[in-house]
Design goal:
32% helix, alpha+beta, eight-stranded antiparallel sheet, 7 helices, 206 residues, two-stranded antiparallel ribbon
Length: 206
């Protein structure tokens, strides 16, 4: 990755611009049953790192007032609190479907801004290289198309997080479980709307 690209990402992380407004619609998870949100289905289980992960929750994600993606979280054990989900060790998956054509640059910038708003300064400092790798994963495409499927898988067997788009590996492999926990805060951090967090821990809307 070029120095200029990493410098640009650093400036984004350090900037004080307001975060975009996100909201979520939620889908409670029934044991053993696939969950369908906005016409996209998530299986109840997924094998990773020699373990069977459980679908913890799924929700529709908005940028401003626009329904943008359907996101899901898989963990080895189900958790009904954000604190429990963030602390869960072992393999983990975050994945989402695009509900519409989205500018790849805008989506990447939104994710980086969400990290800056929800991660601690120590987390950002300790994972700067991984954040830069994550931020550049979509750099060779102009947009995500409706129906595109993105996965982020953490495998403790090699301590790596790998990212795919429609089954094809994209970006660089990112190292460390603390980094994946920080990624989870894009959708589950303290400054994310309550409905977002509740959706990914399998809670129904209040």
């Amino acid at each position: 990755m070029s120095t200029s690209r990493r410098d640009a990402l650093f400036l984004m992380l350090s900037a004080s611009a307001a975060a975009p407004v996100w909201a979520q619609s939620q889908a409670p998870v029934a044991a053993g049953a696939p969950v369908e949100v906005e016409g996209f289905k998530f299986d109840a289980t997924f094998p990773l790192g020699g373990k069977s992960l459980q679908l913890n929750g799924a929700a529709v994600s908005f940028i401003l007032s626009v329904r943008t993606t359907v996101v899901a979280l898989y963990l080895q054990r189900k958790h009904t609190t954000v604190e429990g989900a963030l602390a869960e060790p072992g393999p983990k998956r975050l994945c989402f479907y695009s509900l519409r054509d989205i500018s790849a640059k805008d989506l990447s910038n939104t994710f980086i801004d969400r990290l800056r708003k929800n991660a601690t300064s120590d987390e950002i400092a300790g994972n700067f290289i991984q954040i830069a790798q994550f931020g550049s994963a979509f750099s060779n495409r102009s947009k995500l198309m409706k129906g595109d499927f993105v996965t982020l898988d953490y495998n403790p067997q090699n301590n790596h997080t790998d990212m795919t788009l429609n089954g094809q590996h994209i970006g660089e492999t990112m190292t460390g479980e603390p980094f994946f926990r920080m990624l989870m805060k894009i959708w589950m951090g303290a400054r994310v709307r309550e409905s977002t967090r509740e959706g990914l821990v399998g809670q129904t809307a209040g």
